[in-house]
Amino acid sequence: MPRPIKNIVILTGAGVSAESGIDTFRDAGGLWEQHRVEDVATPEAFVRDPDLVLRFYDMRREAIQTKAPNAAHDALARLDAEWPGELLIVTQNIDDLHERAGAKRLIHMHGEHLNAWCTACDTRSQWTGSLIDRPACPACGMVGYLRPDIVWFGEMPYQMDEIYHALNRADLFVSVGTSGAVYPAAGFVREARASGARTLELNMEPSQGSHWFDEARQGPATRLVPAWVD
Ligand code: BJW
């Protein structure tokens, strides 16, 4: 007999924000058709050509502020507000659409566009403007040390202890709008399964790890997520 569902972990990826007009990474027409990932999303790229990297993130930081949450973000925020058990939304997205929809129990494992990280004093500050003009850190005043607060390839994603703790307690793991191409997030389904959770994938197409899920539903997040939540 399946165990009752009390604790839920939901992993989201770029597909959940696609219908808000934010490009995904690996789909045709996605962001990285125009930029080689090694040129912009690694610490080595930032050392090699900081202007290219800062300009790339300045452009996207400006763009996300013109976007709005969609029906999938709204449904997940509703679930967060109403679910009486434990619930954690782990997003790989660096936009702020989950929180703008009202989600509270949320971890940004790959960082946040609207934060700047000072590598001189290790302080994170809210940031809506540009970084290309080398502004001073609001905390320590040092100039030239702010970088986007984004987890690049080869860097450690954030709050992994909390995430694995939640995965190990989960009765249900749901993955929404992610291709399953990037680790460690791509391994969460196996971690949750190993703890006995039921697993459900909601994605436009089968992801690279689809076969690990008990059930996989295909379609747009704005249709699949509200249908699942309600
Ligand atoms: C829709 C839809 C709609 C579209 N509705 N769906 C070899 C093997 C294994 C691992 C490695 C390896 N070599 C290197 C690694 C590690 C590396 C990695 O995974 N590399 C892979 C390329 C193999 N990972 C790392 O380096 C990570 N750090 C790390 O591993 O540290 C060590 C560690 C180990 C163990 C535990 C803990 C730590 C760091 C990864 C950082 C990822 N950063 C990025 C870039 C951020 C900067 C930026 O934004 O510019 O984060 S990569 C990029 O991919 C971004 C995303 O968050 C991430 C995931 O992408 P996502 O969200 O899945 O998007 P897409 O585009 O791939 O997919 C969208 C999906 O939506 C598609 O399936 C569509 O069909 C669907 N869709 N419209 C529903 N309307």
From TrEMBL:
Keyword Cytoplasm: yes
Catalytic activity: N(6)-succinyl-L-lysyl-[protein] + NAD(+) + H2O = 2''-O-succinyl-ADP-D-ribose + nicotinamide + L-lysyl-[protein]; N(6)-acetyl-L-lysyl-[protein] + NAD(+) + H2O = 2''-O-acetyl-ADP-D-ribose + nicotinamide + L-lysyl-[protein]
Cofactor binding, note field: Binds 1 zinc ion per subunit.
Requisite cofactors: Zn(2+)
Residue ranges of coiled coil: none
EC code(s) of this entry: 2.3.1.286
Protein name: NAD-dependent protein deacylase
Record's function text: NAD-dependent lysine deacetylase and desuccinylase that specifically removes acetyl and succinyl groups on target proteins. Modulates the activities of several proteins which are inactive in their acylated form.
Family note: Belongs to the sirtuin family. Class III subfamily.
One MF annotation (Gene Ontology) recorded for this entry: histone deacetylase activity, NAD-dependent
Residue ranges occupied by any Deacetylase sirtuin-type domain in the UniProt entry: 1-230
Keyword Mitochondrion (UniProt): no
Domain notes: 2 residues (Tyr-57 and Arg-60) present in a large hydrophobic pocket are probably involved in substrate specificity. They are important for desuccinylation activity, but dispensable for deacetylation activity.
Organism: Sphingopyxis witflariensis
Binding-site residues, substrate: 57, 60
One Pfam family linked to the record: SIR2
Catalytic residues identified in the record: 110 (proton acceptor)
Principal localisation: cytoplasm
